[in-house]
## 1
Amino acid sequence: MNRLLLAAYPKSYRSRQGEELLACLAEAYPGRSWPPPREVAALACAGVQARARAVVDDAARPWWLDGIHLAALALAALALVPYLQDVWHWALHIDPGQHAIAFHFSGWYPWAGGPTRIRLLPYGLLPLGCLIALLRGRAWIALPAAAAMIWAGATAHGRTLFGSEGKAGLSYYGLGAPLTARDLVLSGTLCAACAVLALCRPSRLRRHSYRWLAPVVLAMFVAGGLHIISVSPAFQRGLFVLEVTALLGAWVATAATGDHRWLIPVAAVAIVRTQAIVVQPDAFMQSLPDLVVFLLLIAPLPALAITAQRRQGQALPE
């Protein structure tokens, strides 16, 4: 099990010092397949720091390009979350019946039972395609997918391609107001980020393995396969924990390197989520107090900026 901890470290580190680290763990905790929780947290934190330093040391692309790429990935994932169940059911030809997530009608596709208003595709295919293209560094494929998201949101009513906006009612978001296909700030910001990436030589973009899609498939299974209710407090708080973990990871990476690239995705998500709350205050789901939510969305921005400046200040005397 100790080998699972090595996954937090970059490949170059694993090849050089992986066996040495495993030997140290085996010597320090003989007979145990897993170190104590405090040691696990320390190793995971060190792994994030090592990955962050490896990213900063890679001079193949400027920091701001990497930051915009990360922001586009975060926004594509944010746009996909409310439609995980929909895409899962469409891909496996499932009629969810009473487990449908707040659509205007119970029949989604020709095979669905009950009164049916046929639509050809789930809206979630657009952010999913955008996410896959961005993972592989194919911004020229992600750009038309993001543009199609804007079109689908702007022409939601009366269309049968994605149905009535693809999704109606509440989404999974416990940390902010619901985000639907009609939220053009999200799709517009994502499209702008993809346009910048497509114009800046796509060959310079970082390419991630398809293995990064494993969490997406797992999330689809949880949402669609297990029929988790979309407004379930447990699901919303689970998403909240994931978001806080991501913010802590960005802080650890910034503190280790003094680099500003992780500030860009945090700022993009905060702007989109804050805008949704301000525009739709009545739709806020109140799973957390309003002030707490705003602090969690906005406070990381100055915190990351100050952390980067301090780290750079410490690096100068060295």
Note: Confidence is low (pLDDT under 50) at residues 166-174.
## 2
Amino acid sequence: MKVFLSTDMEGTAGVVDWSQCRGPGQEYEYYRGQLQAEVNAAIDGALAAGATEFLVNDSHSTMQNLRPDELHGRASYLSGRHKPLYMMEGLDDSFDAAFFVSYHGSASSTSSVLHHTYNPRAIAEVRLNDAIAGEAGVNALVALAHGVPVVLISGDRVTIEEAQPFCPDVEAVVVKESVSHNAALSLHPDMARELIRKGAQRALARLTDFQLPSVTLPAELTVRFHNRALAELTCALRGVEQRGEKVVAIRNDDPLQLFRTFIAAVILSRGVSE
């Protein structure tokens, strides 16, 4: 049984501020250790359910947050920028399941701690087939393209609720309840890891019950930017059309190509906004 893990960091228990998930600094060093422990908990649960092979895609910030020699299960480690498929790089149809560990709420979910969708400086909202989509929902397009079910998501409750329209039967692990953009009530780290471990084991134990991500094709991503210039700029990409002063739409019957075009728009906007 082969498992793909895409790991962010804002959804880690205890993380409520950018200083905790962006280095350098003592706060970052501490919380990257907490992230590592949550990733390992997911692997431990998968091992207990019979998984034999793991690929961990470090998908947060500079994408070099984990210590590869400390990954359980002798997991392969995919790190660094730039990855053409970004948070989903490395996934293909040889995998049996995908885990999204330490994910966070979308740009438009103001009640989720450190909420954003790929580029907080540029993107104000993303919708997939008119439903609010965070990174979990957008990334599910790649899982759909490769025929791999998303079976586990960990983070705050808002993250899970936003993912469920696209992954309705996902094993949900809530490790904190967001209070605001910079406040959350988190479980003790030991409890968070225990829930993640048990959730991963349960998910793989019922793997045959999972369906592929629920996305009607052809699908449409609509992206609302913070300013008009960014929307106009992304319309230079093939398949992107402007729908409003700050809104563009991307439509495709191929979920992988839809995702690729979205990532191209993200990278283009990042180059300008940063």
Note: The chain has six helices and twelve strands.
## 3
Amino acid sequence: MIKTVIIEDEKPAARKLERMLSLFPDLEVVANLDSVEAAVQWFAENEHPQLIFSDIVLGDGLSFDIFDKISTKAFIIYTTAFDQYTLKAFKLNSIDYLLKPIMEEDLAGAVEKFKSFIPSDQAVNSQDIKQLIKKEKTILSRILVKIGYNLKIVQTHEVSCFFSENKIVYLQTQERTYPSDFTLDELEDVLDEKKFFRVNRQFIINSDYIKNIHTSPNYKVELEFQPQEEITVSRDRVKDFKDWLVS
């Protein structure tokens, strides 16, 4: 049996997930934990499971705080309502990231992915986990931004570009500009590379919002961009940019 732990502070959500996991006869839920404190204590006193399903935002902190305090070789499948924690999740032992409400087919896919990582009767250490996870590509589909005391979900396909200014990375939509918690380097790793391209040190652009492309004899490439007026492709990126346009 595959020993499994659920970390979820909302009791109805925890019960629902446990019912869904009961459909997998080789999974055994050995603990249902509802806080950072409870989880740290349980992991300190019990044999660690092979698989963890964990919400991210708990009543007394983020579940990342658990794994800052204890070391585990378990695979982690995160469950949450928002995408903004994707990057940090995949720096840990995360193999998947399920957005709530969790669909049965998504859960089944995550469980199958977990099983594909571990050959029968063969142990996998934490370094092996990290190498396996590196092969997985996660794509950011939506971003949570803060507007005063309010939160707003922005779909990445609505973003015309990301740009850095005064050490803050902003995302630009047709309506307005929003600050984000990402760096451009982090975004490069999780944006859809078919749509987004880093044209210079300051900008990542979405191909859907390019109006015109201007070239000159000195190999300079400039983009008429909506809603930005003009963006220049750095010379060392021109060839890659042209290849990306036709890929």
Note: Residues 121-127 have pLDDT under 50 and may be disordered.
## 4
Amino acid sequence: MQHMTRHILVVDDDPHIRDLLSFALGKAGMTAEEAADGEAALVAIARRLPDLVVLDITMPRLDGLELCRRLRAGPPDHAALPILFLSSRDDEIDRIVGIEIGGDDYVVKPFSPREVVARVGAILKRGVPPVPTPARIAHGRLSLDPEGWEARWDGTPVGLTATEFELLALLAAMPGRVFSRDRIIDRLHGPGFAITDRTIDSHVRNVRAKFPAGADLIETRAGIGYRIGGC
């Protein structure tokens, strides 16, 4: 069966960067739409939901971090939209802030268009359920549908990004097993993927924050890693 062409929204106030990335994404077999700021991006998303947003942080009118916050607080299809941040600030605090509010990855300017395309491809692959995959994962009050990429708590849908869903599914599929941060990175991104342990910690905090307080969703094993809680 032939896969549909991926549609990417490129949001940056620099037209040269937008054109450069649109060209590179097109060469990789994807379609690209451009927006000059966050407000224009909201209009574009309402008109046609992209498969992923490449999002500059520093922009006039509505910056990338605020746009990300609005999307994550929006309807489920917006809350789950994959986001790759672009920034001219190579600072670890900015990097963690970007991930904590719901970004899936982060690239620092100046960058290679090939690197951005590779990162986009890696994020999109996380949105494709692995084969074989269980039809459904049930653990306590938590249920996960890997085919529909839907998480539910007591039957109520919970909006998760692709990375958050895959992290939770990894833990819930093997209850009782403790995963180190390195092991989680390898399972979600592949061996050698360059992200920090703190990024995994940020994803875990994001997942916990989307479920009721006291849900006992993910347990921290000090000095070791994480495992699914009793739920």
Note: The first helix runs from residue 15 to 27.
